[in-house]
Amino acid sequence: MVPHLVTALTGPINELEQRILESMPAIERWFRLEWMEHTPPFYSSVDIRNAGFKLAPVDTDLFPGGFNNLTPDMLPLAVQAAMAAIEKICPEAKNLLLVPEPHLLSKKFYLMNLQRLVQIFSLAGLNVRLGMLDDRQTDASTLDLPDGSHLEVEPLLRTKRRLGLKNFDPCTILLNTDLSAGVPKVLEDLHEQYLLPPLHAGWSQRRKSRHFQAYEEVAKKFAKLLGMDPWLINPMHTQCGEVDWQQPQGLDCVRSNVDALLTKIRRKHKEYGINEKPFVVVKADDGPSGLGLMTVRDAKELDEPGFRERHMAITGGQPTGEVIIQEGVPTYERMNEAVAEPVVCMIDRYVVGGFYRIHADRGIDQSLNAPGASFVPLAFAESHHLPRPGEKPGVSAPNRFYMYGVIGRLAMLAAAYELEATDPNAEVYE
Amino acid sequence: MVPHLVTALTGPINELEQRILESMPAIERWFRLEWMEHTPPFYSSVDIRNAGFKLAPVDTDLFPGGFNNLTPDMLPLAVQAAMAAIEKICPEAKNLLLVPEPHLLSKKFYLMNLQRLVQIFSLAGLNVRLGMLDDRQTDASTLDLPDGSHLEVEPLLRTKRRLGLKNFDPCTILLNTDLSAGVPKVLEDLHEQYLLPPLHAGWSQRRKSRHFQAYEEVAKKFAKLLGMDPWLINPMHTQCGEVDWQQPQGLDCVRSNVDALLTKIRRKHKEYGINEKPFVVVKADDGPSGLGLMTVRDAKELDEPGFRERHMAITGGQPTGEVIIQEGVPTYERMNEAVAEPVVCMIDRYVVGGFYRIHADRGIDQSLNAPGASFVPLAFAESHHLPRPGEKPGVSAPNRFYMYGVIGRLAMLAAAYELEATDPNAEVYE
Q1: HEC sequence for chain B
Q2: Which residues does chain B have within 8 Å of residue A30's beta carbon, measured at their own beta carbons?
Q3: What EC number(s) are associated with this protein in UniProt (chains A, B) (predicted)?
Q4: Which residue is closest to A95 within chain B, CA to CA?
């Protein structure tokens, strides 16, 4: 059932696993206290990379699209978490309006994700219907799924104060679209209903750098609790704000930041005796994961002829754009011959499951979130995110997955910090 | 995986299953609203009987002892529910003191139950230790489990205001002893810690008649929601208060109540065209389930020679005692040749699993909670308490188990009503 893990388990990660397992009651208590102060995102998924010497989140998705990769065994857990989430937000709810990502409705995998979400929230006791975020849709349409089932998507119906469908007035509107193209007017000024996640969680307003800044804060607190170096769970980062991709000097900031970050990583590697060539990842600060991501091992690569043209995808093909430079965390997990990275899925504060994203054509230092990726849900099946105290670190899949669940929750907590800091409606006490 | 069900599925139960499935969103919402007003017991298990024509709880245990019968698959669900429960009661908790039933510590099955409880609450992130409710225990002792593992039980340490163990000060004290012998002094006047369930949930103060009175209220509300006859889920009952078992006229009240109840059942059977001989069950009103339970089909049986002597066990061998007379609900579920009844396990408001109690030597009209009973945990394995909408009633195990989960939760809600009504510290507004 459990995929073979060939993680290079040398030194630090075993210590980390050991420390995390020993500290389980302290860790769970710490999370409970954090959740008293901070509101977890309604749902989320976190991509994690296990480098053997460090373990870090590389992407936190607040509009997760991989619930179809969970095994049916994980369904009861997801349903129970959904019940707990709904109960806190809108206990009197009858109806949930789910708003999918319009441009993904042609993708089979995405339809399976939608179906799974509909299933989870229906089994949690809600009437769930899908609303199309596209003015051009004026009638209900039926989408065919690979398993022979169907989903109906209906046109949204906006009144002055509420959003719904024909004969369907929801208490909660659950967005599964990342709003990277901006916030549609139809979603604005909804003050009577719960819109989840909030609009400022969309990629038109979110910044990766802000998330990782919050994560750094969380990682420091957590590392203090466990008496360890936060670097073991934190990917260092730096950012450049707006970069002009058309001019050679436009990349000056990127170049100097790449150089500085590589130096910092080299120092850390030396401290831990890690025999790896450091690399950094340059990516758009304001876009969903994977898009036009670039691996750099030396700042000089940025001056190579044609470099800027080849990598304009980072800014989405635009002449300018904000970029983040992040410490590259190689992934040493493999399934057979393919490079693998774990993805942890959460609803409310609970880890409800996870899966491996694998990609046979990608290297250990590249993004696996790219066409050609496949998914293996077996890894996190059943009770594997529950640790087995007493087993040696590094040898027990359940213990490994507990550790992934902790890192996933740290990233989720960082997203909670981030959303508080960026909330346009937050009350400020000074 | 799923045991063969040979329930006599004629008429009403299929309609009930259908009605319950169709009404799932309304039912879940109704429970959510009830839990806003009422506090669920910390944990509970409910014995259910499926007569084909009606489905009813027959016993609600607030100190459940069957967690060892859950499959490992159900563990994540139990852990998540335990996390939710602890979070509400004592989020800053580090330590949980579990107080087992002293006279069951020689039973292997009970030790396995304790081990499972320790596992659940440890995995929820608490330091769990066991405290012995017996003054004679002055040192820690080690108990050997059938699987080769061990549990340590320590003497309780009481200070003026708190209860704990040596070097162990818990936030919450979880009782797994039903206190049928009365409330020990060591548990009295603990106002700084959470004592769960509260003392008045113990059998020295609890009355079955009070529970079923609360259940009747719950069943009526629920039946109104679904537009159905509450009798389909409610076992009728009546009670006699103190009965003098030594005198023939001591049973006068029992005799007339048995007669009246049998008449009421006969009327209901006629209404639904049920071709069954009615029976009632006479049992102690203030004791744990099963003990000295007696099946009666005719009030005349009470006058048979030697009857009172044979059934003095009802009052625990005492000359007098309180009794409850309850409509007998036959169980038509079978595993192979043995009579079976489902048991639903809950933590906080969540169904975390269930199992079948089976007994090869007992009839469909007898208590299965007796020596010789065995347990089949397979039935409720995995996601089987999640319904599959669209499947025909009566043919789908998951749908059947969803229905059991609903009835289990109704009985748990009744226990919440009951504990509120009997709370000696309740504030009364008049």
Answers
A1: CCCCCCCCCCCHHHHHHHHHHHCHHHHHHHHHHHHHHCCCCCEEEEEEEECCCCEEEEEEECCCCCHHHCCHHHHHHHHHHHHHHHHHHCCCCCEEEEECCHHHCCCHHHHHHHHHHHHHHHHCCCEEEEEECCCCCCCCEEEECCCCCEEEEEECEECCCCEEECCECCCEEEECCCCCCCCCHHHCCCCCCEEECCHHHCCCCCCHHHHHHHHHHHHHHHHHHHCCCHHHCCCCEEEEEEEECCCHHHHHHHHHHHHHHHHHHHHHHHHHCCCCCCCEEEEECCCCCCCCCEEECCHHHHHCCCHHHHCHHHHCCCCEEEEEEEECCCCCEEECCEEEEEEEEEECCEEEEEEEEEECCCCCCCCCCCCCCEEEHHHHCCCCCCCCCCCCCCCCHHHHHHHHHHHHHHHHHHHHHHHHHHCCCCCCCC
A2: none
A3: 6.3.2.2
A4: B25
> If DSSP codes are grouped into helix, strand and coil, which group holds residue A356?
strand
Joined tokens for residue B376: 């089949």
Assigned CATH for A67-201: 3.40.50.11280
Model pTM score:
0.89
Whether B322 shows a pLDDT value over 50: the answer reads yes
User: Edge-to-edge strands of the sheet including A320-327?
Assistant: A237-244, A320-327, A280-284, A294-296
Helices vs. strands in chain A: H and E counts, helices first: 8, 18
Topology adopted by domain A236-328: Dna Ligase; domain 1 (3.30.1490)
Residues of chain B in Cβ contact (below 8 Å) with chain A: 24-29, 31-33, 35-36, 72-73, 75-77, 79-81, 83-84, 86-87, 91-94, 122-127, 350, 382-383, 385-387, 389
pLDDT of residue B4: 35
| Interchain contact, A125 vs B80, CB within 8 Å | no
pLDDT at B393 over 70: no
Q: Give how far the C-alpha of residue A176 lies from the chain's centroid of Cα atoms, to the nearest Å.
A: 13
Please name the residue that has the structure tokens 């499959």.
Answer: B71
Q: How far apart are CA A406 and CA A344, in angstroms?
A: 10
Mean pLDDT confidence for A105-133 = 94
3-state class (DSSP) for residue A39:
coil
Q: Which of B225, B222, B224 is nearest to B214 (CA)?
A: B222
Q: Domain residues of chain B, as ranges?
A: 12-64+206-421, 72-204
Q: Is-contact B205 B285, C-beta < 8 A?
A: no
Cβ B356 vs Cβ B320: under 8 Å: no
Among candidates B24, B76, B92 on the partner chain, residue whose Cβ is nearest the Cβ of A29: B92
Q: A135-181: per-residue pLDDT in tens?
A: 888 899 999 999 899 999 999 999 999 999 999 999 999 999 999 88
Mutate to test the interface with B, among A147, A386, A396 (most CBs of B within 10 A): A386
Q: Which chain A residues are Cβ-neighbours of B94 within 8 angstroms? A: 25-26, 29
Phi, psi of A176 (to 5 degrees): -120, 25
Rounded CA separation A122/A116 (Å) = 10
Q: Provide the 3-class DSSP secondary structure of residue A154.
A: strand
pLDDT band for position A1 (cuts 50, 70, 90): very low
- The amino acid at residue B338 is A
CATH architecture of the domain with residue range B72-204:
3-Layer(aba) Sandwich (3.40)
Q: Which residues of A touch B (CB under 8 A)?
A: 24-29, 31-33, 35-36, 72-73, 75-77, 79-81, 83-84, 86-87, 91-94, 122-127, 350, 382-383, 385-387, 389
Give the torsion through C-alpha atoms of A400, A403, A407, A412, to 10 deg.
100
Terminal CA-CA length for chain B: 54
User: C-alpha angle A16/A22/A26, rounded to 5°?
Assistant: 105
Whether the pLDDT of residue A87 is over 60: the answer is yes
